[in-house]
Amino acid sequence: MSITDLLERAAGGARLSFDEGVRLYEEAPLHELGAAAHARRMSLFPTDDVTYVIDTTINYTNVCNVHCTFCAFFRPERHGEGYTMSHDDVVSRVKWAADQGATQIMIQGGVNPALRLEWFERLFRRVALEFPSIDLHSLSVSEIVGLATVEETTTLEILRRLRAAGMKSLPGAGAEILVERVRKRISARKVKPEQWLGVMREAQSLGMPTTATMMFGSIETHAERIAHLDAVRRLQDETHGFTAFIPWYYVPFKTPLKGRESTGLEYLRVLAISRLYLDNVPHLQASWLTPGLKMGQLALLYGCDDMGGTILEERVVHDAGSTNEATRKQLEELIIGAGFRPVIRDTYWNLRPEMALATAG
Ligand code: SF4
After folding, report:
1. Does some domain include residue 192?
2. Residue of 60, 61, 68 best suited for mutating to test ligand 1, as the one with most atoms within 8 Å of CB
3. Does residue 4 fall inside a structural domain?
């Protein structure tokens, strides 16, 4: 089949095989790939709405025993620069974000074995009680597995207890590339691909919405990028529990792994193939934090229907050398500048048009 025919089929919603995905990724002209992805996005969501969420990320600890080579954020246990915020400190940051209109808080950090489950339960209960309109879209599979190890229990039990304490949703962080060869090189002590998928399956079985991410641009091949999409697509066939897919690229500047930064064109290519290959994941999110706001704007023409969040405060990607940040006004202006209409959503993708800024008018 010709590339043109393949693109036409994929834009119409036909499922791509693994080999077809690799072929399109490697051979399709970028703009044609993007046009097919945008056509698919417009047929899934035939509206000019582009959503975003007002949120913040609070990196509560940088102490971590996983030691990923692509990470410039963590400090090993007993390192002089290690920190763990107090509950009061986290709560004051939640309050600041709530005062800015945030509806979602991502409390995420390293895998710090000094923190017990009870520490998180008390924190989440307090946030849920003091800020009932905030959704805790927090932690990651690595932190859940770390807690299960410390508590000598199952990840399902950890998720149950955290959910009871107020955690609403599990972000897709820590997926990197769900291929064992890659993980052995960049995050050998992190959860295995099957374990990442298994914890996601458990969270979804409890009714928690989840997202899936992909950190590309470290050492993986093109085929391994498609293998990652394939792993997400297979789990989604089974559970339908992922609300969105969020590809972002590795920032190499201050990490032990080093390497080169992906190009903007590579980012757009990954977005477009993600929209076409993941025929069963509804939303594709522009992760503007690493490629920058202007690439985030272009992403809206390469398959994305969501701009992610305002990310009022974030350290992990920042510490690796990324300096991007955005206000609500900037995000809305970018969306409008691309010819779309900004609409605020919450963690569950409920639209909150009443919260839009005047710029949206
Ligand atoms: S990416 Fe996460 S798990 Fe890996 S070292 Fe950094 S903080 Fe730890």
Report:
1. yes
2. 68
3. no
What's 210's domain CATH number? 3.20.20.70
pLDDT tens by residue, 229-283: 999 999 999 999 999 999 999 988 888 888 988 999 999 999 999 999 999 999 9
Determine if ligand 1 sits within 6 Å of the CB of residue 110: yes
Q: Distance between CA atoms of 21 and 10, rounded to whole angstroms?
A: 10
Please report whether residue 242 resides in a domain: yes
Average pLDDT rounded to a whole number, residues 71-88:
96
Q: Is 330 exposed, middle or buried (0-12, 13-18, 19+ CB in 10 A)?
A: middle
- CA-to-CA dists, residue 310 to 102, 209, 223, 258, angstroms: 9, 20, 32, 28
Residue 3 inside a domain? The answer is no
Take residue 357 and report the two structure tokens written for it: 């800024």
pLDDT value of position 254: 84
Give me ligand 1 centre to Cα 46, in Å: 38
Distance (angstroms) between ligand 1 centre and the Cα of 202 equals 22
The number of the ligand 1 atom at minimal distance from the alpha carbon of 73 is 6
| Single-letter residue type at 39 | A
According to the per-residue pLDDT averaged within each range, which of 93-97, 115-119, 346-350 is highest? Answer: 115-119
- Find out whether the beta carbon of 142 lies less than 6 Å from any atom of ligand 1: yes
Please tell me the total count of domains within the chain: 1
Please indicate whether residue 315 or residue 56 has the higher confidence score (pLDDT).
56
Q: Is the pLDDT of residue 310 over 60?
A: yes
